[in-house]
Amino acid sequence: MPWRESLSPIQMKRVALVAPLERRSDVLLLVARSANVELDLPYPPGDGQEELDRAVESAVVSAPIAGWVGWIPARELSALTEDLAGLGAAVVPLERPRGVQPPTLLTGLGAGRAGLSRTLVDTYGTVPYADVDPSRLAGVAYVVMFGMMFGDLGHGAVLLLAGLLLRSGRIRRLKRLRKTWLFVAGAGLTSMIFGALYGEAFGPTGLVPVLWLEPMTNPIPLLVTALVFGAVLLAGAYALGTINRVREGGWAYALYASSGAAGSVLFVAVGLLIWGILASLSPVIVIAVVLALAALTFIFIGFFVDAGGGGTGVVQAVIELVDTVIRLGSNVVSFARLAAFGLTHAALLTVVWTATTALWAPDWRAAAAILVFLVGNVLTFALEALVAGVQALRLEYYELFSRIFQSEGRPFHPWAPVLAPELHPDSSLERRQP
To answer: End-to-end distance of the chain based on CA atoms, in angstroms?
Structure first.
């Protein structure tokens, strides 16, 4: 499958299923077997013979035919058409009702390498049908942020081994977590990379050289790096947000959206302004101010129109505009937590290592030092893994996803009731066909 298709929900078609009145049950049995049609039913779907009977009775009847409407993945349309032809039934493509959003079905949902990454997104909300699916990108961003906060070669290696152990499935109690192995291993690998950059291996033990900087002695460069990395992630979120706004409502909608083109221009303008001030470049400052004013104007118009116009609309638009500017600054600063929790991890391990070396002596105190080292690393590992996991999730949800998504989609639920064996079309449908 082309990579472009994997970034978007599967194309859906609105269809009508038309069948001879006397073949309604057979048609529905085939649809149940295919499990690729979401029927518009006037009641919550169920299972068994009762569900089949209710679906038969819910058909729109115009003698001598009966019909149902629903949604089907476009790629399944030809196969279902061919299958229904054997029953004298047909699939009729329909125009999508205006204002109705098709259900969302993501490529390979819940399986494969994107499965857990999609769990990150699905926990936030269902990807709208028109939007780009950011699951894979979200997964990469998450493990990188986790690694920056959990940077330690030794602790990362433990996580990597845990991921490989989950993949092996050797521990029965953990088999249900097997699908998370790539995620855990990825977080461990990025933690090892940052640990090597920091020169940390179960703390400042000197087991590995410092390849970049020591967090405890160089906090400012680490903080600046976290902010720059956060700005890059925000730029990506604005880019995806702009693409989604175009797909949702066209360029006119994207032009005025605070998470679309106007918001992206404002973000660029702020970056140019900071650069111009730091580098004392007057032309860059002027360009930044002009871009910022233009972006703010378009964003204000968008808020004003959404508010319904009038005096109340002006007040609401002004409040939302101020909130947009404040949030933009706070969202960038929020990524400072990548450095802050990286420093916390390093500080805790420094305390553990200092206590270990202070206790160490060629007598009974060596056992105490080893115990302090082991217990300290275990506690730090558990605490920091939890903190880094939660904070990386928070940054994705509040700083990134809030720009990528403006609304929530509706997941695709195919009509596939659980039928008794004697009703299953695999065994009985063929005999009933003419």
So the answer is: 38
Residue 201 structure tokens: 């291996």
In this model, does residue 283 exceed pLDDT 70? yes
3-state secondary structure 321-361: HHHHHHHHHHHHHHCCHHHHHHHHHHHHHHHHHHHHHHHCC
Non-local (6+) Cβ contacts of 98 within 8 A are none
Q: Where along the chain do the CATH 3.30.70.2750 domains lie?
A: 3-105+413-432
Answer for the pair 373, 352: CB distance below 8 angstroms, yes or no. yes
Architecture of the domain made up of 3-105+413-432: 2-Layer Sandwich (3.30)
- Note whether 247 and 132 are within 8 A (CB): yes
Best mean pLDDT range from 29-38, 43-52, 165-174: 29-38
Burial class (CB in 10 A: 0-12, 13-18, 19+), 350: middle
- The answer on pLDDT for 428 being more than 70 is no
pLDDT per residue as tens digits for the range 74-131 = 999 999 999 999 999 999 999 988 888 899 998 754 434 445 677 788 888 899 999 9
